[in-house]
Write a structure and sequence with these properties.
By secondary structure, the protein is mainly β. The chain has a domain at 13-97 and 601-606. Helix content is 11%, strand content 42%. The protein is built from 8 helices and 37 strands. The strands form 9 sheets. Strands 22, 23, 24, 25, 26, 27 and 28 form a 7-stranded antiparallel beta sheet that branches. A hairpin with a 2-residue loop joins strand 1 and strand 2. Mean pLDDT is 77; it is low at 1-93, 110-120, 151-158, 547-564 and 600-614.
């Protein structure tokens, strides 16, 4: 979930970074008239008959952006994202639909499995769990394990039969089980015609007590997209990073990668035009794409045709000592402000803020840590700033973060995105012993319909929700808990003071819950507006003082004399689920909420994807 102010709770890239395609959506009739006259229309609007056929047959749901085709009772999804600046046409009311791709967790590659017994690593069985939760469903919750593409590095290529679970009369459907290789799965559900798409969330966990894959990895199931940022991973010695590309739709996706490193962006030939067939998962070893050992890194994933649910599966060994596993899911799209919730510090460990500046200008980044009540005073002294060169990735150590719960706020003069990489040792007396990794991505503010699936009680995992309020006024979230049998709790309110972090124990909402769904978020709008105004005045005054000293006209400027636009104040309430394993010391994972479902109403049709038409 990234950004705010749109129907799906995701702020558009244009709105966040101040850029635009230069094209303003027009009325459909005006668009066609312009095309008939031979005038250049919006990017991609140059295929008259093809476009009309597409408009007649293709309906994309905003937010989840999934086409739903029902044949013989089987729900099929053709995923495609609506890019910023694209035009849409309302063509009628369709049933709301949601679809997700679940990444699964780390697995031993086929090469490792075939190693001679004399050198084979001792590996304990991995406990893989998949929990899926739909609220507001009318059709069945459909779960399918994807086919592994021929290029996949994991074993097992068969697709398991689809699982279908009918919702209760109250619209709740729950699936608890395992997916395909590593627990990967695709999931879809439909809601009533003319109403918002169902809230759909998923949690995939993998827990291994010892061996090369020792640790806990967890991820939320993600909506397919054509543009994603994965901030995490490494190709340093001892670290394996696999890019997983899951295509839950019925259209092949052609994927291209940009790998951002401390030396700039690389577009490896082996990472271009990667075809992911419909209903399949393909994997790419980043170790083989990037010639030199690189840490830190971030991966920009774009696709045409179909859309994919991308993730990075990371495992690390130092010699023969396991140092962590994790699944990295997409961070918020680049913007001037980012909020990273889920900074859970405890015992022996470290935290690093990873920032990537994808544009053509160096980013000047300001960093603040917002902690819980016990750590607020210590966190206040951790504010820092850093320069991130254009196209590069920089790690900012967060030393001194107090034990407890916290979030990180990033403000920049040019768009950036970010994540926090946590490393937690099994014991303070053995810092070089076994450890685990967790990656907390930047998220969007919470919005109604966002969900968090919870681990089962017998999974051996503890769960807490960390809520970070980046705004200047108090924020209050109202959530309901859902049980596996469809039972629903009364709304539970949790208030978070301005610029602070608080912890919500799911047991406070209800016992034995399968998930939480946000029903309302209330922020102090007056306080937010006052803070924004004060920040603008402070920037203007500082710029005027600098300009007066230099004999200039005033106003903050870059080296070339161009005015600098101040980053807007961070706002909203941000959440992450933090998991720990009681029986595996140091095991930790951080999971962002699911995306917000599409709004109710008529279904928009993609008219002008910038630059091309699938």
């Amino acid at each position: 979930m990234s950004g705010a102010g749109t129907e799906d709770g995701m702020g558009s890239a244009a709105a966040q970074d101040g850029t635009s395609s230069g094209w303003t959506p027009q009325e459909p009739a005006r668009q066609q008239e312009a095309a008939d006259r031979g005038e250049p229309g919006p990017p991609g609007l140059r295929h008259g008959p093809r476009l009309l056929a597409a408009v007649a047959s293709v309906a994309l749901v905003v937010g989840t952006a999934a086409l739903v085709v029902v044949e013989d009772g089987v729900v099929d999804h053709v995923a495609a994202a609506v890019p910023a600046g694209a035009g849409v046409v309302e063509v009628g009311t369709q049933p709301g639909a949601s679809s997700l791709g679940c990444a699964g967790g780390p697995v031993l590659t086929a090469a490792v499995e075939e190693t001679d017994e004399e050198f084979a690593a001792e590996q304990s069985p991995t406990d893989r769990r998949l929990v899926l939760l739909a609220d507001g469903a009318q059709g069945p919750l459909v779960v399918t394990a994807p086919v592994e593409s021929a290029s996949s590095t994991t074993s097992g290529t068969a697709s398991a039969p689809a699982t279908q679970v009918e919702p209760t009369d109250d619209g709740v459907a729950v699936v608890e089980g395992a997916g395909g290789s590593g627990g990967a799965a695709t999931v879809s559900v439909t809601g009533p015609t003319g109403q918002a798409a169902p809230s759909l969330s998923g949690l995939s966990t993998s827990l291994t007590p010892d061996g090369d894959l020792r640790g806990l990895s967890a991820s939320s199931c993600a909506a397919p997209t054509s543009d994603a940022w994965l901030v995490g991973g490494s190709t340093a010695a001892g670290t394996s990073t696999r890019l997983s590309l899951l295509n839950p739709g019925a259209t092949a996706a052609e994927v291209s990668l940009g790998v951002h490193t401390p030396e700039g962006v690389v577009q490896p030939p082996g990472g271009q035009d990667v075809v992911v067939p419909p209903g399949e998962r393909s994997e790419v070893l980043l170790d083989g794409l990037v010639e030199e050992a690189v840490e830190p890194l971030a991966v920009h994933v774009t696709s045409t045709g179909g859309s994919v649910a991308p993730s990075l599966v990371v495992s690390r060994l130092v010699g023969i000592v396991p140092r962590g596993v994790e699944v990295v899911t997409p961070a918020a799209a680049p913007a001037l402000t980012q909020v990273v919730p889920g900074l859970a510090t405890a015992g022996a460990g470290s935290a690093v803020l990873r920032v990537v500046a994808p544009g053509e200008e160096t980013a000047t980044v300001e960093v603040d840590v917002l902690a819980d009540e016990a750590g607020a005073a210590a966190a206040a002294g951790l504010a820092t700033s850093v320069a991130v060169p254009a196209g590069e990735v920089v790690d900012v150590p967060l030393g001194g973060v107090p034990a407890g719960a916290a979030g990180v706020v990033v403000r920049s003069d040019v768009p950036v995105t970010a994540a926090v990489v946590l490393a937690r040792s099994a014991g303070a007396d053995d810092p070089d012993g076994p450890a685990d990794l967790a990656v907390a991505p930047a998220t969007a503010p919470l919005a109604p319909g966002a969900g968090l699936a919870l681990p089962r009680g017998d999974a051996g995992l503890g769960a807490q929700v960390l809520l970070t309020n980046a705004g200047a006024g108090q924020a209050t979230a109202s959530v309901v808990g859902l049980a596996a049998d469809g039972a629903r709790t009364d709304p539970f309110e949790v208030a978070v003071p301005a610029r602070s972090t608080r912890t919500l124990d799911p047991a406070q909402v209800g016992e034995g819950l399968t998930g939480l769904v946000v029903v309302e978020v209330v922020v102090d709008a007056e306080a937010e507006a006052a803070a924004e105004q004060a920040a603008a005045e402070e920037t203007e005054e500082a710029g005027g003082a600098d300009g007066g000293a230099d004999g200039g006209q005033g106003g903050a400027t870059q080296d070339g004399g161009q005015p600098v636009s101040p980053a807007p104040a961070a706002t909203g309430l941000h959440a992450a689920l933090v998991l720990v394993a009681a029986d595996v010391p140091g095991a930790v994972a951080v999971v962002p909420p699911s995306s917000v479902p599409a709004a109710a109403g008529s279904t928009p049709v993609l008219v002008a994807p910038p630059g091309r038409w699938p």
